[in-house]
């Protein structure tokens, strides 16, 4: 029987080179697989890269966000303002601590929280703004920081999709009280699973250091637990991979930018497609390449492309319309109309280092007749 062996073009894949493989295998050979030298080496590299004072390596971006919420002392009765157009983890971290997410609609161009809609969502219970930098581009931080100062609100930055992005010359993750990066295999750089919390506060740094390590005391007495903690540690293989990945992060972002520019050139002139827009004062670190499809059924297009061997994803469903969120808080359709409209139109195209011009051309040639 003949099998169809046509290649499938994936939507994402990590870039791993021989240096990455060597550093991980060196850790394996050393026998020191956790709490060795690599996680602090990786932390130091991240502080240098993102120009932040302290970094705490953790087991995932979600774990980092959870610790951020804990470290700010948020809990039952508190509200935090955030974006409904994000990956579920940016709100789940609030629910873990019984904090209520209060959503604010997004900017149509950048898909980030609309700073001008924040103030009217503030109540007596509002304690913080959890800013998500979506798809590799920061939110409009100046007006957000201004409203936070005016109402004395803390800022958590979910920079899990935006390591390496800048806003007016400053790195994503370095604005707020706490920032969090993530290193899942589809992100700008990977450690397998992994995340990094960054902060300028020594108190938050020390607290998160303890919380990720079973609540142990700062002096690391092994069986002295001074608070309720977690095992959110990053293992040494992951941290080692982080060190070599971070060293080539700028190069990887440049490679992704070239792919984005090639897509832009091919798709820009097609009616019913809107290519990614970059806000004033911002640089894009290209987590995903997401276009908007107008006047066509986006999900049908996904299915048709899939039959042609092209994997694409509906990026990203809104958080407030997830079944458990609707049940818990009574959210309904049309609560955040811009986020919902964008969410119904957006399509993530195959986007990874190694995707070549012939493949991009093939993808665009297949998309075009489905849309125009
Ligand atoms: C990936 C991601 C996270 C969580 O990262 P994990 O490492 O998968 O836990 C959080 N927020 C956003 C916006 C993300 O894209």
From TrEMBL:
The active site is at residue 187. GO terms for molecular function: pyridoxal phosphate binding; transaminase activity. It holds the Pfam family DegT_DnrJ_EryC1. Keywords: Pyridoxal phosphate. The lineage of its organism: Bacteria, Candidatus Roizmaniibacteriota. This is Polysaccharide biosynthesis protein. PANTHER family: BLR3650 PROTEIN (PTHR30244:SF39), TRANSAMINASE (PTHR30244). The modification N6-(pyridoxal phosphate)lysine is found at residue 187. Belongs to the DegT/DnrJ/EryC1 family. One of its GO terms (biological process) is polysaccharide biosynthetic process. The keyword Coiled coil does not apply.
